[in-house]
Amino acid sequence: MRTGKLKTNNGYLAWLFLGPSLLGFSLFYLLPFVTGFYYSLVDNPLNGTFVGLHNYGALLKNSSFLSALANTAKFTLLCVPLNLILSLGVALLLNQKLQGRNLFRTIMITPLVVPVASVVLVWQAFFDLNGVLNSLIHALGYPPVDWMKTNWSRIVVLVIYLWKNIGYSVILFLAGLQSIPAEYYEAARIDGASRRQEFFRITLVYLTPTTFFVFVISIINSFKLFRETYLISGDYPHNGIYMLQHYMNNMFMALDYQKLTSAAFIMAAFIVAVVLLLFIVERKITNMIN
Amino acid sequence: MNRNHRIKNILHVTVLLVLAVLFMFPLAVTVTNSFMSEQEIADNYDPVTDKNVSSYNDDSANHFARFQLIPDVVVLKQYYNVLIKKTQFLFMFWNSVLITFPIVIGQTIVATLAAYAFAKLKFRGRDFLFFLYIIVMLMPFQVTLVPNYLMAGQLGLLNSHWSIILPGIFSTFGVFLLKQYMEQIPDAYLEAARVDGANQLQIFLKIILPMSRSGIAAMAILVFIDNWNMVEQPLIFLQDAAKQPLSLYLSRIIDGEKGVAFAASTLYMMPMLLNFLYAEKYLLEGIRLSGIKG
After folding, report:
1. Which residues cross the membrane (chain B) (predicted)?
2. How far apart are CA B215 and CA B208, in angstroms?
3. B63 in any annotated domain
4. Looking at chain A, which residues constitute the CATH 1.10.3720.10 domain(s)?
């Protein structure tokens, strides 16, 4: 058939369309990625000698790396479930016939487009030792809390993270909810199912692919939180929010490329693992539903 | 039943209203306070910004900052200072423009071409290559920081906007998003064009491009948001303060010139907000696309 012949031609044509992207991708992403891996295995970026996994071993004994790793892990464990529950809740609310639901939806995603740097001052004025939050606490007769310079800073970062990111997950959940065919609910109602049964047996089940995607994306976004903490508290924030990205950034400033690249590849390996998991689970779920 | 339903409805709207107020509050404060006089700003925020004066040691409420939504007197002094008296703001605004626009335009072109190849053409190693694109897209900036920095040094790009623009153009995010979109275009259209004797370039220009218009708009707006916001890259690549974008300027302004900080912040978020009001449906489309399985 004609199409068969054309498809063999696709080979080099595809490379033409792909060319510019692939060239830049190789130069600015793939090559740095591979070189980075090489740096993590030598003792010096320039004319280094091969030291195997020595850098990784040294890193795993480094206390500030370990605490950055622990902080990142704690933060991820806290923010991912919260993000899932809150955004699913808001999406369920917005999925009803409510007055002004489009306006609410718009408001939920506004933080997404607002540059972090432009509202930093408001967050600072809110959470500072002399800030608005403490004035409320003071008015209630309790001693003020130094939000940014104690372990409470984790909560501050969490609040800012949720403010910024919930809208994105809400939109994904809304799209997921709207793709569930109305007939399923009608059939369930005829069978006499309660609202609760509908939610657990239909909504949650058919929402699984979306939920899983939001789950993975929020894990990955929780690694990208550097911007917010950096803008609010600079290079060396309180120990409680000293994350892996701070560690890497500071290793860069200290020109300790071995520690930086090995830390980067531990993180990269983790991300690859999470994405592979996404692919595998996704396939399983799709098979199950079909 | 009906009454129950109505109570539930009111409850839900109330929850949403509370959330909406919380979500909009930081924005509202920033915008309204941009019309305050320097004195009024000092009155409200000195306990936070002026570390010498205030420490918490007695019970007076004056030691706390206040959020005041409505200015006592509306003045345009901040805007005058930011836009006319001090030129630094405009320079850095221009830097943000100089970095963001080439990235948006460049990535749109490069990604549209590549996405077509991934979505509609068959070639060896396609799935593996696309997997690599996704993995790289998900990596935090710091993962490739060192080699990127050394590479920029080799190419003589350090301290130049190009050290940020070039990697930005080739970011794989646009490819990912548009591939998702183009895969939804039915093959039948392409088959029909082929039967009519169109070649691949014609198919791309006459069918794929027009049909991908809203996908391309969605991609462009997401890329715009992401890059207008950027902090990490200029922090490393642009040591020269005169070349840095607004995001870094605003994080420093709080120490010295808080009297203009709100006007500067408002002006900084304006392009984003206007863009958002104008193109919200494309933004929504973009977010939805990112969630479709590849």
Report:
1. 9-29, 93-118, 130-150, 162-182, 203-225, 259-278
2. 11
3. no
4. 54-289
Per residue in B175-188, pLDDT (tens digit) is 988 888 888 888 88
Report ipTM for this prediction: 0.82
* Pairwise CB contact (< 8 Å): B136 & A25: yes
Judge whether B66 lies within some domain.
no
The shortest CB-CB distance from A113 to any of B19, B129, B273 is to: B273
Interface of B with A in 267-286 (CB under 8 A): 268-269, 272-273, 275-276, 280, 283-284
Task: Report the 10 Å Cβ neighbour count for B167.
Answer: 24
pLDDT in tens, B32-71: 888 888 778 777 777 776 655 544 455 555 677 778 778 8
Q: Which residues of A touch B139 (CB under 8 A)?
A: 33, 267-268, 271
Q: Which of A284, A126, A279, A154 is nearest to A229 (CA)?
A: A154
Distance CA B65, CA B47 (A): 5
State the Cα–Cα distance between residues B188 and A145, nearest whole angstrom.
64
Among the CATH numbers 1.10.3720.10, 3.40.50.2000, 3.40.50.150, 1.10.10.410, which is that of A54-289? 1.10.3720.10
CA dist A246 and A259 (Å) reads 13
A108 touches chain B (CB under 8 A): yes
What is the reported pTM? 0.85
Q: Report in angstroms the alpha-carbon separations of A29 from B84, B104, B111, B154.
A: 41, 18, 15, 15
Length of chain B (residues)? 294
- Is B238 inside a domain boundary? yes
